[in-house]
Amino acid sequence: MTNNRREFLKQLGVGALGLTALQGLPLESLAVKKKMFFKISLAEWSLHRTLREGKLTNMQFPETAAKKFGINAVEYVNGFFKDKALDFKYLTELNQRAKDNGVSNILIMVDGEGNMADANQKERAKAVENHYKWVEAAKFLGCHTIRVNAGGKGTPGEMKNAAIESLGRLSEFGAVHGINVVVENHGGLSSDGKWLSSVLSGVNMKNCGSLPDFGNFYDYDRYQGVIDLMPFAKGVSAKSHDFNTDGSESKIDYERMLKIVKDARYKGHIGIEYEGQNLSEDEGILLTKKLLEKVGRQLS
Description:
By secondary structure, this protein is of the alpha/beta class. It has two domains: 1-34, no CATH class; 35-299, TIM Barrel, CATH 3.20.20.150. It has helices spanning 3-12, 16-22, 27-33, 48-52, 61-69, 88-100, 121-141, 156-177, 193-203, 222-229, 254-263, 281-299; strands at residues 39-43, 73-77, 104-109, 145-148, 180-184, 208-211, 236-240, 269-274. It has an eight-stranded parallel beta sheet, with helices on one face. β7 (236-240), α11 and β8 (269-274) form a beta-alpha-beta unit. α11 packs across α12 (281-299). The longest helix has 22 residues, at 156-177.
């Protein structure tokens, strides 16, 4: 038995008797059977250039995820079917496309519907109502969650109170439909993990949570930010831009990030969100998937 094989079996925790039984198995087969503690999904934003160039449509997204990338769970971006939230003929066909390809619809990322943390009550109320149709669309598609933004104008304290009020209202509507409402660290105050976690604590509803993104913390320590948000997580976004020659992400320590995610006892989907410019979107997605699988199996 080679040293590499002995070390691998040692890491599996196999005893002396188990070693004898497993000696005849190829190393690769053992690795494949080791399940990860999370599942992988694909965020539609990973293909935003392809979609904007007209080389792919939202309707084709589920099939692309399954056949090109081997991913069977998808996260939509509302901007790529902006006028279809209440078009149930369209949503029925999208559902069928996903079903035909063995794909689960799990989330809709919602942008452009107003500021949920605006200190202006009128603007905030309009934003909440604008999101209702996406809750209904998510329900129809079989998703469990919509992602919203906690943007707005005001002091940090004013915006915190505003976000708690509006997220509470939207989450009440979401609860009726069985839909979670989550906030991503997506710029502004929402990229301050301490501020956003205090908002979610203030809402204090089971279906209101977070979507921690590995890459959107800017002036806030990214690892601390994920630690702050994981207690509320109902999804996780694996941001990636560039890769080193060994396949690791050039600026984000995926092993450290996934250890934080695992320590929070999270077992849901982690969505690939490639945003790099130096590789094609296809290459970036596949490299991110490979990295998640490699580190995921190491930590599982």
